[in-house]
Design brief:
Blueprint lengths: L2 H24 L13 E6 L4 E7 L6 H18 L4 E9 L2 E13 L18 E13 L1 E9 L9 E2 H11 L4
Antiparallel strand pairs: 1-2, 2-6, 3-6, 3-7, 4-5
Helix pairs in contact: 2-3
Length: 175
């Protein structure tokens, strides 16, 4: 194998590894999709120009991502119903947190050379070490009540639905 071919193969391997790691990291958080198995978005019409929009993520979804996806769904709902602007009237934190205990068990064996430190003779080997670690399973979620407008309102803040939708789709690389 030529030296040039070796370096080319090494470069390819590094790029493939970086791509695989980034795919694995991105694949864990809840994708932008309709609600399924407790995670995703949903929406319901409350009146002619008011809607309830929900987004629930999984344990790998950040709170920022959950809020952004609720805003993205709000922008879509606004445009799908013939409006250009929307205001968030009410926000409800729909996150959940559940306690659980993770148990780690390891089988330990004597360490060669440890007898020189004097404690080796007193530990029966092999032995099992069990550690109980309290953990919290957190799933972010949010519920927005939005009001939609055809024209930008004068007295309250309103998002431009098309601009916000485009911005969030670029941020999360959603088509």
């Amino acid at each position: 194998m030529k030296k040039h071919d070796f370096h080319e193969a090494l470069r390819f391997l590094r790029r493939a590894t970086a791509l695989l790691i980034s795919l694995l990291l991105c694949a864990c958080a809840t994708k932008y999709r309709p609600s399924k198995s407790g995670s995703g978005y949903s929406s319901a019409q409350l009146s002619s120009n008011e809607f309830m929009v929900r987004f629930h993520g999984n344990a790998d979804t950040s709170l920022e991502r959950a809020y952004d996806f609720a805003l993205l769904r709000s922008a879509e709902v606004t445009r799908q119903n013939g409006f250009r602007y929307f205001s968030v009237l009410d926000v409800t934190n729909a996150s959940s947190a559940k306690r659980y205990t993770r148990v780690y068990r390891t089988l330990s064996a004597p360490v060669p050379g440890a007898q020189d430190f004097g404690w080796y003779d007193y530990i029966p080997a092999p032995y099992t070490v069990e550690v109980q670690q309290p953990e919290i399973y957190y799933q972010p979620g949010t519920v927005f009540r939005i009001r939609c407008f055809s024209d930008r309102p004068d007295r309250q803040f309103a998002y431009d639905a098309a601009a916000l939708e485009g911005s969030l789709r670029r941020k999360y690389k959603i088509r």
